[in-house]
Amino acid sequence: MSPVVARIRRGRRRRRAGMHMSRRVEADYDVLVCGGGAAGIGAAIAAAQAGAHVCLVEKYGFLGGAATNSQVLAYCGLFQQGEHPVAAVGGVAREVVAELRTLGLDGEAYRSETTGNWILRLDPEILKFALDRLVIRHGIEVFLHTRVAAATRTGRMIEAVTLAGMDGRRHAVAEAFVDASGDANLAMVAGESYQVGDAEGRLQAVTMPLRIGGVAPDLPIDRARLCAVIAGYNDGGGAYPIHRTDGGIILRLPLSRDMWWLTVDLGMEDLTSGSFTRAEMAGRAMAHEYVALLRREMPGFAHAYLVATGPQVGIRETRHPAARTVLTGADVVSGRQRDDGVARAAWPIELHGAAGRPVYTSVGGVGFAHVPYDAIRAASLDNLWYGGRVIGADPEAYGSVRVMGTAFATGQAAGVAATDYVERGRRVDVAGVRDRLRAQDAII
């Protein structure tokens, strides 16, 4: 711990002892991170590496975010587009990939035959275990099965949060906070303004990725046959028309050699429990219908079966909290470089305005756009930073920055920025944050 952090922490405890004599403070941290997905892992590990006492809060019983809770078994955004994979994200993401390799994954870039984009294929159980090992190794205090239920705000500062878990509620005080929840949960309870969906309130479609077993491990994907099967199903009045008439994204997973298929797509009207319930139930019905279709019509799939869907449907978009600036679609298309950049956005703009009909727009310039520092800062709160899906971005740029590879980078930037803010006595130094990110092997 740096002397500055130690001094701030002692003074903070003395102040709170006088201000809250009737309230028991159960935990005291330098940085508290909400959300244990790629962005939250990036933020928590980066803050811990910078010397902060870190708390990481996750609502599920495991870490990993969409990769583990929605079976999105590919990291997108770690590499730029092109004939060869060029790294766009380093730092914490590289540490995660190295840990995956020690547990049996190859960690190599894989080019999707459908889109031509470079991804990194995952196994959910190995990823869960790898992330457990990393947060323990870095001394991060983790609370699974826990949500941020409320926040205490004084002026432009969050003073503390209430954590709701299996053992009830506890009070946690921190000097700085990172919202990496994907849904702006912390920003919302802290009173930050937010927007749902795009400017008209429209949400991008959701997808339920399928994991399919029972297929011979050496069977090639006959995409022409798959497209013909889908066309026949749709023309014959199938119960759930398949919108991805090109066959969707289908590829082999590492280790298990199961098939991973993205073809279950649904529109999402709003963020109500009713809409989520309908999407989950309809998605499962479609999953079983489509796997049965493969068994009937696709050579080599006679013994195919549904191994798993995720604990929840794959969500692309929910709330967008107000940030101090936004990355724009024009920034991404032009590949804009900035002196205040803290992360690289290299994934093409991928928009799912209509279920099953993604639209891609490539990143221009040298193949990436800089995410500016103020895009990871809350608009009305001085000690709240954003990572992942909740950073400031307009609807077009959001289609690029929302992916998990980029989330590692923006999360790491948020964790470093939050720690730097604490150490500098609540002062912001963008150049200092960039230097510290480079020292952590981040690519900016």
What are the SSEs and their pairings?
Elements (H helix, E strand, L loop, with lengths): L2 H17 L7 E8 L3 H12 L4 E4 L8 H4 L4 E3 L15 H11 L6 E3 L6 E4 L2 H14 L3 E3 L3 E8 L2 E9 L2 E12 L5 H5 L4 E3 L9 E2 L2 E4 L9 H13 L13 E4 L6 E4 L2 E2 L6 H25 L7 E4 L10 E3 L7 H6 L6 E5 L3 E3 L7 E3 L7 E4 L11 E3 L8 H7 L2 H20 L6 H10 L5
Parallel strand pairs: 1-2, 1-9, 2-6, 9-22
Antiparallel strand pairs: 3-5, 4-5, 7-8, 8-9, 10-17, 11-15, 12-14, 12-16, 13-14, 18-21, 19-20
Helix pairs in contact: 2-11, 11-12
Largest sheet: 7 strands, mixed
Domain module count: 2
Structural class: alpha+beta
Share of β-strand residues:
15-25%
Q: What is the helix fraction of residues, given as a range?
A: 25-40%
Oligomer: single chain
Q: Specify the CATH homologous superfamily of the largest domain.
A: FAD/NAD(P)-binding domain
Gross morphology: globular
The CATH C-level name of the largest domain is Alpha Beta
How would you state the average pLDDT, rounded?
94
CATH topology of the largest domain: FAD/NAD(P)-binding domain
CATH-scheme architecture of the largest domain: 3-Layer(bba) Sandwich
How far apart the termini lie comes to 26 Å
Strands, count: 22
- Rg, please? 22 Å
Low-confidence stretches: 13-24
Tally the helices.
12
Describe the overall structure.
- By secondary structure, the chain is of the alpha+beta class.
- The chain folds into 2 domains: 3-201 and 317-439, 3-Layer(bba) Sandwich (FAD/NAD(P)-binding domain), CATH 3.50.50; 206-308, no CATH class.
- 32% of the residues lie in helices and 22% in strands.
- The strands form 7 sheets. Strands 1, 2, 6, 7, 8, 9 and 22 form a 7-stranded mixed beta sheet that branches.
- The longest helix is centred in the middle third of the chain and has 25 residues, at 273-297.
- The radius of gyration is 22 Å and the shape is globular.
- The model is unreliable at 13-24 (pLDDT under 50).
